[in-house]
Design brief:
With about 350 residues, the chain is α+β, with helices and mostly antiparallel strands. Helices cover about 20% and strands about 20% of the residues.
Length: about 350
């Protein structure tokens, strides 16, 4: 009961917290050159290293390394070129609509978001001030190949949508559509292994004496991590969406170990034996170092992972995405129209 009460109180505190984090706001200069030297992380009221606040991982740096780069670290010239391309793309997306241009012939609804509604970041990711070519730190910056004899990746189409997968979603009913599209769950951002996406890259962290809560802006998920506890034996049968996470502090670092993910969770085709270890450490007033390691002996020969730095954000607006929104009506109505046309063509 004590743990349950603490977790409820922590969740309430998370939503009741001020919208503006008590850390420095983002600026391009601060992003490039935070004050790392001699930094001593503060402690919270529980004596724990204070990693609380609102943080963002929006960045132009992809999870996997583009083929144009051959090393993890970029030169400043390469970083400037990447950011220049991102700025060119941003300006093109923000340009006023030309009324003289007719409607596009491609009516693909995936093109419905204009640049105003997205926030993929404009800066390359830096770790300790060094610009990076990828978030993954494997030798080639790519997801390692599966080991010989590893089972094929499980099919998890229900966890994704056609927007995030090469496979188109099914249209018989809402239950066949992807969970992000239904505003239920986004595997990519929620974690463990929290990855940046096209928008909604903010996270709010609140710490309690025996729990840590991470509020994920995208689909408004909340991870609750038990501190100093053991894995729940029931999680092997229930398998929560974000797995069964426990944590502990090692000096200035919060270490989180997560197992027993839901079988529809998307984690690079990992098996149900995967274990993810995350490390959170504040390295400057406005930086939070995030490292992750993926260990799945069924799928890969050895653990692999990556790292990046969250930067301090100004707050999180409500992401009012909810199941049964008008987008679902349009998707299913369009599918029924396709059914009617297909039936008519057979007559």
């Amino acid at each position: 009961m004590k743990i349950r009460t603490s977790m409820i109180a922590l969740t309430l505190a998370l939503f009741a917290a001020p919208a503006i984090a008590q850390v420095n706001s983002y600026s391009a200069d601060a992003y490039a050159k935070p004050d790392y030297e001699g930094y001593v992380p503060p402690r919270n009221g529980f004596g724990q290293p204070d990693i609380s606040g609102v943080w963002s991982n929006a960045t132009t740096t992809p999870v996997e390394r583009p083929k144009e780069f051959t090393s993890l670290n970029l030169t400043e010239e390469q970083a400037a070129n990447v950011q220049g391309r991102a700025e060119t793309y941003r300006r093109a997306g923000d340009a006023p609509t030309d009324p003289g241009v007719g409607a596009p012939t491609d009516r693909n609804t995936n093109l419905g978001y204009n640049r105003f509604w997205t926030d993929p970041g404009t800066q390359v990711m830096r770790v300790n001030g060094q610009p990076r070519s990828s978030i993954l730190t494997t030798p080639d910056g790519r997801v390692p190949p599966r080991k010989t004899g590893a089972p094929p990746p499980p099919k998890r189409r229900v966890a994704l949508t056609s927007e995030f997968s090469a496979e188109a979603g099914e249209n018989d009913g809402p239950e066949a559509r992807g969970l992000p599209e239904r505003c239920i769950f986004m595997p990519t951002t929620a974690g463990a292994v929290m990855r940046p996406v096209l928008y909604n890259n903010n996270y709010q962290i609140a710490q309690g004496g025996d729990s840590v809560a991470i509020w994920v802006e995208m689909i408004h998920d909340i991870r609750v991590i038990r501190i100093g506890g053991k894995h729940n034996r029931g999680s092997a049968a229930i398998r929560p969406w974000m797995g069964d996470g426990i944590g502990w502090y090692e000096g200035d670092t919060l270490v989180v170990e997560t197992i027993n993910y839901h079988p529809f969770q998307e984690l690079y085709g990992a098996s149900d034996q995967v274990k993810v270890t995350e490390r959170f450490r504040r390295v400057a007033d406005n930086r939070l170092l995030y490292q992750f390691s993926i260990d799945d002996p069924v799928t890969w020969d050895k653990p692999w992972g990556g790292e990046y730095e969250f930067w301090a954000s100004e707050g999180i607006y409500e992401y009012a995405c909810h199941e049964g929104n008008h987008g679902m009506f349009g998707i299913l109505e369009g599918a029924r129209e396709q059914d009617r046309r297909a039936a008519a063509a057979k007559q």
